[in-house]
Design goal:
It is a single chain. By secondary structure, this protein is of the alpha/beta class. 43% of the residues lie in helices and 17% in strands. It is built from 14 helices and 17 strands. The chain has an eight-stranded mixed β-sheet with strand order 11-10-12-13-9-14-15-16, with helices on both faces. Strands 1-2-3-5-4 form a five-stranded antiparallel β-sheet, covered by helices on one side. Strands 6-17 form a two-stranded parallel sheet. It is elongated and about 110 Å long. It binds adenosine-5'-triphosphate. Adenosine-5'-triphosphate (ATP) binds next to helix 7 and strand 17. InterPro entries: FtsK/SpoIIIE/SftA, FtsK_dom, P-loop_NTPase. Keywords: ATP-binding, Membrane, Nucleotide-binding, Transmembrane, Transmembrane helix. This is FtsK domain-containing protein.
């Protein structure tokens, strides 16, 4: 029994912890051992008490009662500490073994590894044995037994990796604030532990069907840009929600093909102007970017790019589309250092889109909101497509991938929650626009 507790202590020091059904007793028998230890104590107290009664001496009896009460308190504490040690320290191991025990005909020698880093529990099932299919689709069962949200699964040559979230990341909640929140920081908090910085990973791609939350997210993003004194141009060929911003952002909003061509041209001209200033020998600083030269960021937000491309029916229309797509290509490939960025949103990314896979891969932040077909997701994430797709029934949820963060796959994310009944987007926009115009901070 002592060996059992000693083994457990040693196991705790292992990371990852390796378990198999072969050693089920190492984990699952702890309640039995705790019962045996407490029973020994209780027998001892009874014996002690009986001795006091038989001795017929009031002082011994009194002494006995005091010692017994003290011992009972100690036993309760000892039992609780042991339970905590075994159950709390090995909570996931015990639940996993109990779960595996219920799977019929599982080989006893099949080895599982558990590793946790405070936010993610990583369970590795080692392949290379018979009946491997029994271990391949355990995400739902494990998620319900461990009571942890399933994050992702990867299947390698010899292992199956299951990842569960230990701490559910927090969704950002957007609230109107009394005080303006102008900032010089380029980092934009997107909630769920994701921070986006356009200087590190320029440009944004958002895909998602109707009602998936694109407009709400773009509106949130626009306010974040206003907080950073950005110059924003908006192209909305469908003249929907964003197009209506022309009442507030004047000629920075374009809905007709000619106007869309005009604003993309303005963005490219500004980018070229910045480069000529930055590369002027008088101003040249090696390795510098737009921030070092005192420029703000410039964003071109292009909603429904697919609709715009499809709108070109005649020769003149096609010429305009070609010019716009060429401007966009310029911004994607050259914009970063000059601080000229683009956000492209589309209901569907089609393979025939002028935004080729190569160009799409240059968009550093990629988001797919709501339900998307596997083909649609592949268009957005390409090689970063996750092996299994999470449930995205929460409004404004989907998948996100930020380039250069070391992560291999897109992951589940909930866009900042905007309570449209209390957060007036237009009011916020005007607050920042007016303050920016009059230099109020
Ligand atoms: N981040 C969010 N926070 C709160 N509610 C959201 C969020 N995202 C989506 N919703 C809810 O979903 C509805 C549809 O969102 P939204 O209008 O942004 O979708 P969309 O993708 O722009 O659709 P469409 O292409 O038809 O305009 C919103 O009115 C809102 O009720």
């Amino acid at each position: 029994m002592i060996g059992f507790f000693y083994d457990l202590k040693n196991k705790r020091e292992q990371n990852p912890i390796v378990i198999s059904l072969n050693e089920r007793s190492n984990y699952l028998d702890y309640p039995l051992y705790i019962r045996i230890i407490t029973s020994i104590f209780i027998v001892f107290i009874i014996f002690f008490f009986t001795f006091a009664v038989v001795s017929d001496n009031l002082y011994i009896l009194l002494f006995d009662v005091i010692v017994s009460l003290f011992l009972i308190k100690k036993i309760i504490y000892f039992k609780k500490s042991l339970e905590d040690f075994c159950y709390k320290q090995f909570y996931f191991e015990i639940l996993l073994l109990q779960f595996l025990e219920d799977i019929k005909d599982l080989e006893l020698s099949f080895v599982y590894q558990l590793e946790e880093d405070g936010t993610v529990l990583h369970i590795v099932a080692n392949k290379g044995v018979t009946n491997i299919e029994k271990h391949e689709n355990l995400e739902k069962g494990l998620s319900s037994v461990l009571n942890l949200p399933f994050k992702k699964k990867t299947v390698g040559n010899s292992v199956i990796n299951y990842f569960f979230e230990i701490q559910k990341p927090k969704r950002l909640v957007v609230k109107a604030k009394e005080k303006l929140e102008f900032t010089d920081k380029m980092d934009i908090d997107l909630g769920y532990g994701i921070v986006y910085n356009p200087v590190r990973t320029p440009h944004v791609l958002i895909g998602g069907g109707t009602g998936s939350g694109k407009t709400i997210f773009i509106s949130f993003f626009l306010i974040e840009l206003m907080k950073r004194h950005s110059t924003v141009y908006i192209c909305d060929p469908k003249n929907s929600d964003l197009g209506n911003l022309s009442h507030y952002l004047d000629d920075h909003v374009a809905v007709t093909p000619n106007n869309i061509a005009r604003v993309t041209r303005l963005a490219v001209e500004e980018m070229k102007k910045r480069y000529s200033i930055m590369n002027d020998p008088m101003n040249f600083k090696y390795g510098s970017n737009f921030v070092d030269h005192g420029f703000n960021s410039l964003w071109l937000i292009f909603d429904e790019m697919g609709a715009f491309q499809a709108s070109a029916t005649d020769k003149e229309g096609k010429k305009i589309v070609d010019e716009v797509m060429s401007n966009i290509k310029h911004i994607i490939l050259l914009g970063r250092q000059a601080g000229c960025f683009i956000l492209v949103a589309a209901q569907q990314m089609s393979a025939s889109s002028a935004l080729s896979t190569d160009l799409r891969d240059n968009l550093g932040l990629r988001i797919a909101l709501g339900n998307n077909s596997p083909d649609g997701l592949r268009m957005i994430f390409n090689t970063h497509m996750p092996a299994s797709l999470p449930d995205v029934s929460v409004k404004g949820s989907g998948l996100i991938y930020v380039e250069s963060t070391g992560k291999m796959e897109a992951e589940y994310w909930e866009a900042p929650f905007v309570d449209t009944t209390s957060f007036n987007f237009i009011e916020e926009l005007l607050k920042y626009k007016t303050a920016d115009k009059y230099g109020l901070e």
